[in-house]
Amino acid sequence: MMVLSSWNALDMGVTAFCVFLSAMLYNRHSARTMDNCSRSITPQGYLLHNQVTHARLLPVESVNVFTYPTVSLLVSLDALEGRKLDLGWGWVFGYGGLWGRITGLRPKPYLTQQPGSIRSKLEELLLLRGFFSGKRRFKDAWMMTMPSFLGYEGINPLTVYFCYDLEGEFWLTILEVC
């Protein structure tokens, strides 16, 4: 008889969830592709499997190294806030304030604790810092972050925003360190 530790059970649960989410995304993409055969579909979000490694090498008596897997999302803010990425009527994945969904993103913990969408808070931040000059605005931004699970926002040490200008050219990267 094999006994699973809590970490192995958690790993299996996360793996099963990732496979389920991947299948949902694939089915949604396939349905869109069949409906829109004449035009190509640009991906608007990605599920990323990452590996975090920490190494403390000095002082020698305290050497410690560990690695653990993480899951993050790379999503277009326009697609996210336009609800183009919602799955399962927003219960599997969604944007906004629902607490009962499996996974999702809420705007509150990003950039500032002020109310508003992530995009509006990003625009306000860029305006206050003097990045908007004349017609210099951004068309879209892609955000890489860790999602919440079952309404719980865990540790999200880094969110990266990749901003693209009105011509669709890469313009600027913002790192939000929590």
Strand content: 25-35%
Shape: globular
**What are the segments in which pLDDT stays under 50 over at least 5 consecutive residues?**
1-6
Rounded to an integer, what's the Rg over CA atoms? 19 Å
- Kindly report the spatial arrangement of strands forming the biggest sheet: 1-2-5-7-8
Q: Profile the largest sheet.
A: 5 strands, antiparallel
Total beta strand runs: 8
- Element order, helices and strands? HEEHEEHEEEE
The whole-number mean of residue pLDDT values reads 81
Helix- and strand-based class? alpha+beta
What count of domains describes the coordinates?
A: 2
Q: How many alpha or pi helices?
A: 3
Secondary structure: helix percent: 25-40%
Distance between the termini: 43 Å
Describe the structure.
The chain is α+β, with helices and mostly antiparallel strands and 178 residues long. It folds into 2 domains: 1-41; 74-177, no CATH class. The chain has 3 helices and 8 strands; from the N terminus they run αββαββαββββ. The chain has helices at residues 6-35, 77-81, 118-128, and strands at 45-56, 64-76, 93-95, 103-105, 138-145, 148-149, 158-165, 170-177. The protein has a 5-stranded antiparallel sheet. Strands 3-4-6 form a 3-stranded mixed sheet, with no helix packed on it. Strand 1 (45-56) and strand 2 form a beta hairpin. It is globular. The protein starts with 5 loop residues before the first helix and ends with a strand.
